[in-house]
Write a structure and sequence with these properties.
- The structure is a single chain.
- This protein is mostly beta strands and 504 residues long.
- It folds into two domains: 226 residues, Pectate Lyase C-like, CATH 2.160.20; 249 residues.
- 6% of the residues lie in helices and 45% in strands.
- The chain contains three helices and 32 strands.
- Strands 25-26-28-29-27 form a five-stranded parallel β-barrel.
């Protein structure tokens, strides 16, 4: 796809998330079908530049020569043929496509020295987490990584390699920084030793039909968007140890106009998440027609804890099969500073729509020994929690069905009286408060909450009410149905709430 057709396609795809708050309305559509991608005029195989599929033979120089050759000719396609090619870091250039044929594997070197540190052009806090990459680009345009091959992190965490668990010195498999007109399509990422793929301050990004698998290392997120603009992720399958799809914000621009649709994701942590880093915030984002399965923490986590603004977010038609918590919304005041900013006030979280949600709640299943070594999280109540003086506002949930199959810590009637600490400066997570005083939704420091057609079925014995409202104002519930093993109240509304309508 040339740069003009790609840009037009992405602009159409995110049109529903821009220009006024229309994203939650059922009739708003997304992109038309994608135009086909014409092949570049120039094609070169890495074999022509000395690459060899031999054990122990490093191919970074050969691959780089192929990329540089095509870039000097004005652009082209660099072909990785079938075979396993050991390589360190390579730099993709403008107007060049790296194409991995079926059966092709780019296998990461186990030596840290093969991955030079990549400095940012302007200082930003994400430099703490992104330093090295197998495939890297900075400030380039019209770049793509496509095909049916594999990027293999070749993770060695048994002490025999140079990478270490939870080390930000580890390379990500793919990192594009400040690039525009980016396409990643069809390839498989596996065995990442750090964040699998990261797109920081990029514009016009299209991620399509990629697979992430065998990510057993801590911090091995499936896909991270950092302060990106006009991005589309669709038709992807992700199975990750850490967050499957994660939006982050470290600079004032934030994440703007994005669409995440038709993906199937699993994580031992969160399925689809915004945060925790949230300095610039998130605006005009659609999350639609996704499936989250066997996920240990939250299916959907929307978090503002570093002073940014989150607004105009639509989450539509989501299926969750076995999640610890269906929904977590958190406004906190951890307030990490951006460069040059001395004080950070609490952020804003408003205008959120969640509709057409079907969720079952339970502890996530583990499928192999590597997973069983990792997180072992309980299930916890969905929550919408601001902080004193900074309320979450204008949140609508409708047509929501939640079946709690198990996984909750035992909870009795006495737990409905628990005094929950604020913990505004703590890391936001579904378990941060421990057992909450309700089993369906816990809502605190919020205003203009609307819930309609909410159905909750609880199959565990539980002495808590379904909903507990604390400092909630100008809010309404209609069409709520709750069934459970114990005959507990549906609602507990504390005396500091005003303007609460319960038409259930």
């Amino acid at each position: 796809m040339d740069r003009f057709s790609r840009r037009t396609h992405l602009q159409r795809a995110v049109a529903a998330a821009s220009g006024g708050w229309l994203a939650h309305r059922p009739g708003i559509g997304l992109a038309a079908s994608q135009p086909s991608t014409p092949p570049p005029l120039l094609e070169r195989s890495i074999l022509e530049f000395g690459a060899r599929s031999e054990e122990g033979h490093g191919n970074a120089e050969s691959i780089q020569r192929a990329i540089d050759f095509c870039a000097e000719k004005g652009g082209g396609r660099v072909i990785v043929p079938p075979g396993s090619f050991l390589t360190g870091s390579v730099v993709l250039k403008s107007n060049v496509q790296l194409y991995l044929q079926k059966g092709a594997v780019l296998k990461s070197s186990p030596r840290l020295r093969d991955f030079p540190e990549r400095p940012l052009r302007q200082q930003a806090r994400y430099q703490q987490y992104l330093k090295r990459a197998l495939i890297y680009a900075q400030g380039e345009k019209n770049i793509s990584v496509c095909g049916e091959g594999i990027l293999d992190g070749n993770v060695l965490l048994d002490g025999s390699g140079e990478f270490r668990e939870q080390s930000a010195e580890n390379p990500t498999l793919l990192w594009f920084d400040e690039c525009s007109n980016v396409t990643v399509r069809g390839i498989t990422f596996r065995r990442s030793v750090w964040w699998t793929q990261a797109y920081s301050q990029c514009r016009h990004v299209h991620i399509d039909r990629i697979t992430v698998m065998e990510n057993y290392a801590h911090n091995a997120d499936g896909c991270d968007f950092l302060d990106c603009e006009d991005f589309l992720m669709e038709n992807c399958t992700i199975d990750a140890n850490d967050d499957a799809i994660c939006l982050k914000s470290y600079v004032p621009a934030g994440c703007l106009r994005g669409v995440i649709r038709n993906n199937k994701v699993r994580s031992l942590c969160n399925g689809i998440k915004m945060g925790t880093d949230s300095s610039g915030g998130f605006r005009h984002i659609i999350i639609e027609n996704n499936e989250v399965w066997q996920t240990g923490i939250s299916g959907i986590a929307l978090q503002i804890v570093d002073g940014g603004i989150m607004e105009n977010i639509a989450v539509r038609h989501t299926v969750m099969n076995g999640v610890g918590t269906p929904v977590q919304l958190r406004l906190g005041n951890r307030n990490r500073r951006m460069n040059g900013i001395l004080t950070v006030p609490p952020g804003i979280l408003r205008n959120i729509y969640i509709g057409g949600l079907r969720a079952t709640v339970n502890k996530a299943e583990k499928y192999n020994d590597e997973e069983r070594k990792r997180h072992n999280y309980q299930a916890y109540t969905s929550s919408i929690c601001g902080i004193p003086g900074s309320r979450i506002e204008e949140v609508t949930l409708e047509d929501v069905e939640i079946r709690i199959l198990g996984g909750f810590p035992p909870a009795g009637a006495e737990d409905s009286l628990r005094e929950i600490p604020e913990l505004g400066d703590k890391y936001p997570e579904n378990r941060m408060f421990g057992t909450l005083p309700s089993f369906g939704f816990y809502i605190r420091h919020a205003r203009k909450i609307r819930m309609n057609r909410i159905r909750i079925e609880h199959l565990q014995p539980d002495g808590r009410p379904a909903f507990l409202l604390d400092d909630v104002h100008d809010s309404a519930w209609e069409g709520v149905q709750v069934t459970g093993r114990n005959p507990t109240p549906c609602f507990s509304v504390l005396g500091n709430c005003t303007g609460v309508g319960l038409n259930v």
